[in-house]
User: Fold this.
Amino acid sequence: MAQTIYPTTPEVKHNDQVGNTKINDDYNWMENFENQKKLNQLLEKQNEFYEAYFANYEPELRTKIIEDLAKYDTRVKQPESYLDKLEDDHLFDGKVYKFSYNFDSKGITATKKYGSPTSPYVVYTLKFYNTDYSEVLIYNTKERLFLKIAGVRLSDVQVIDQGVFYSKIDNINSFEEHLKKFSTNKIMFHKFESSLSEDQIVIENEGNSYASLYKVEVDGKNVFAEIKKTSGNKIVSTLIRLYYETGKVKSQVIFDNKEELYWLSSRSGKVIYKSPELSDNFSIFMVNSSDYSFKQIIKGSSKTIDDAILIDDYIVVSYLDELDSFVMVYDIKGQLLDKIDLPGVGRFTLTPLDGKQFEFEWYSPKLPPTKYIYDFNSKKEVKYTHISTKKFGNYKPYDYRHKILKYQSKGKEYSMLLVYNSKTDMSKPNNIYITAYGGFGKPTELAFSIFRSYLTDQGVVLAYPIISGAMDSTYSQYLSSVGINRKLASDNFNDSIKYLIDNGYTEKGKVISIGYSNGGLLVANAAIDEPEYYKAVISKVGPQDLISYQNGTFGRLWTREYADPTVEENIPKILGYSPYHKIKKDVEYPKFYIETSKKDDRVAPWHSAKLAGKLQKYKNDSILLFTRDESGHGNISTFDKGIIDKLLFILKNFE
Assistant:
């Protein structure tokens, strides 16, 4: 292996002051946007160290991994540039019109949002890979001109025949400004054939609120706008109907300040919400565009509502019960018509189809995504039909087994799923690859992954513990780990590992954990608490400094999850689950592989840089920080260099 020397992370004496409490933070300089150039130079030095570390690291094993993955036939190739390939066969006469753009085209996706044979206008949205920064391009086919609206929330762009609704991040003209000022405070309306200076302000937010737009199919005229606000540990929603009349956009409030409502689906002039109502009682509510009424149509259930869709006069709802999932079919009045059971442990996604059908895709750690069609008109006893299973070369799904375990943590019982190859000897301690998310009410992710399936082919056992902070069964399971109780999630995670050790499934030092986003916080926090359990930790794009998380991007909206660090009485608890602040000298921490991105507009890269810098200061063995230049907060393809490096890192540490 090449000789490598850790880059030195500069320290500038600093204390965060909350009331009378001082908190040492000598890497605080990274949070100041004026120091962005200095931070980028540090990230580049960390990448140089990372590249040197892997330059001659197990070349034979690397070659084997690449050759083996190629047999799965999952290579993903993306076009070099989307921007020079925008065309519409009808409106653009089959031609490609190039246009100038002040943002690197690599990683930009273009999506056509609107185009009609009766209109000269075509509307595109441009999104940087897996971020919330986007732009709207309005193309006038008569004049061959583009109009650009910058700083737009992509999911919030809707078009009616008269113009474009968009959620505006005020005065944002570039991604860098977006990172600096991240706040969506206005819903605007741009009328075709007008200039941007004439755009109408439809809604203007105040304080900790953000707005979203959802098109509802009501004669192409109506759009619903949803505004969420944080109030302590509560999130409240307001729903407003927007419509165009006599040359102006007008609005009608449908409901105001409803607690804990989550938008699920809109179709044929109806909108459905789920509401946990701050209790273990999940309900479905509906807005009906015929009279714009808002009422409960499916009464409360103790099981978590994961998703729901509208199809004509039917409502299809998927429920979670820890590791189990099932689907219920209701009529529009909320009467139960049918129940669909899964083929095994996994999760559903639901997609409405034309006619009285819907497609559901089943995800399982053991089996690639499998699609089924459900037909409401079927006279058969079984109304759904298997239509396809994605195939992956040499992957053999019947080589895999699973086991469901029950473990105790803090006086409660939780479930845990193990997935392993049929050739693995489960009577002896094995290498364990364990993952969880544990926050924001997000269910435990049980999707198929070539990355993880490849590990099981090498004899690694996958572990998926149910922990607090997720919402796999009840709302109280989620609420138990919000705010100042966040540490409960990492305690659950460590207790699941302790169970595996105590019952002979593995041994100390034979565990590698991985977490993404909030999961990146989770695994870092857990490993710093119980370092002896772990051989290594992979923490991706995680918030690591929970005293300063509000400084930038989405942080101001996370006080429910992590507690408000500006309240002095919260500080002792927050310091108990803030990984960056818990690192101590003379502790033998496991190896860390930390990943971030310069273009991450969810969790700023300084979180990862601060964690890596402090760990490197106290530990001189394999603290790696890898920073991507062109991806956002999300994942990348199986054949990405970072994926290969992570597999190499995992398999070498499991030897």
